[in-house]
Design goal:
Number of strands: 28
Strand order of the largest sheet: 15-14-20-16-17-18-19
Radius of gyration: 26 Å
Number of helices: 10
Structural class: alpha/beta
Low-confidence stretches: 1-27
Strand content: 25-35%
Distance between the termini: 51 Å
Length: 569
Amino acid sequence: MKNSPSARLLHVFAAALFSLVIAGATLAHAATITIVNFDSPGEGFNDATAVAPIGGNTGVTRGQQRLKVFQAAAAIWGAILPSPITINVEARFDPLFPCDASSGVLGSAGPLTISANFPNAELPNTWYHIALANKMAGTDLAAGANDITARFNSDVDNATCLGTTSWYYGLDNAHGTNIDLLPVVLHELGHGLGFSTLASGSTGALFNGQRDIWTHYLLDTDQDLHWDEMTDFERATSAINTGKLVWDGPAVIVHGDDFLGPVSFVRIDAPAGIAGEKGFGTANFGPPLAAPPLVGQVVLVDDGAAPNADACTAIVNTAQVSGKIALIDRGACTFVIKVQQAQIAGAIGVIIVNNVAGSPPLMGGEDPGLLIPAVSISLADGNAIKAALLSETVTATLGLDVTRTAGQNGHERTLLYAPNPFEGGSSVSHFDVSASPNLLMEPAINSDLTSSVDLTRYLFEDIGWFSPRSVSVADRPARSLRLRSTPNPFFAATTVRFTLANAGLTEIDVYDVNGRLVKRLMRAWQPSGEGAVSWDGTDQGGRRVSPGVYLTRLRSGATSENRRIVRMH
């Protein structure tokens, strides 16, 4: 058996477009969401396999139980969202690929139709998912057509897909080690109802050359631009700008703290050459990271059998590991087994190093007897730690920072998922995995999710599902400084634009990537408001700088902002 089963959620969008102009008045009442059975006889919703009722689900066949879970999810969303127009969801269960013993696709969903420039649209020349467009218009803009398509993986109930893990069809969230279908259906319906952009994250291209409502609220804090203000290149760059892509809608900003808690962090404290906070994945087992944080020396484990650092058998260097944070390689056995071996050896915590490039993995599995925290880190960070261990002592801190909010940047904006490299079906159209507690609309299903739609309700307010709104754009907290350059990248010259919340002595400088000053562009007293200064791509001596990446830095009072800028050949 390989690593513990994990689940990835994939989302698709239909290509049929409708842009009808039919007048109608919007009514404010709960939406009716109807599940339309698209399965063939004997399979999916029509699977006649006899089963016992479970967790409040009274169905007596597997197909009946599947349908009742879908209907329960539809009722939850219907009670939250106001619309006078019935929302029809064509749904089916099919084998979905890839799916093996260690990972698999659970489901996919998206709008069958999108619309723009319909009566009562909040923004002109802007695509909306059809269910939301119908709500705003007060009439069915695609009469006779279904609104959302959804497919779910029937193979989850087979041993070839996710091993012994199966769908849990109860309605009480008591899923144990199985996958709770109810929050997965809530998640996928969320995408069909509007939780996704139609823009291509890989190329940056807008759908049919026109923005959608999501691009209006997607903000890149490095570029200081919303996606509907960017070029295709800038959007593609933003889609992999980890930790810098945020949702800028006022309702999510105001209500983020209602759902998110303190920041969990993994930090290397020494040696200085590799010190700093690291991206990390969490585990479904063991205690969560806590305050005060866990501080300890990091030691690479040795289990005496090649490959020696995977802890798939008993650890032999227990004298070194005891009382320390165990560093373990991913692979060959489950995450749970690795942490069990570390706990037996006396480790106080575990860091598991990924065995492939990319984001640190989320770690599935269950063992109530695990009492030490475990996190995963990237292959690159793990290799850096191993190299340092050859000659130096490495120390780390794992814990909570109660002064920061998990899943947000420093300006109360909630982060969206923007891993590098880009992950088709997951990037951009999800909240970031750093959110804690976990949110419904993260890219992977988490075992602690229930039937709550949490912060997603307020994102839906931002995109127009609720009128009147509880929070207006005027309530959105302003960043004290704003800095951006256009064009970026540039060839001959660029204009550095800035916004100050308060008047004060203002400096704008250009640095190279090593932190050396290239050129001072401004040092003067500036009033609050907007301003601009040009950079012609020269240094302090008037010489043209080499093509490459540079940093512009704005300082005013006690605050500062940095932005990346690129000079092209």
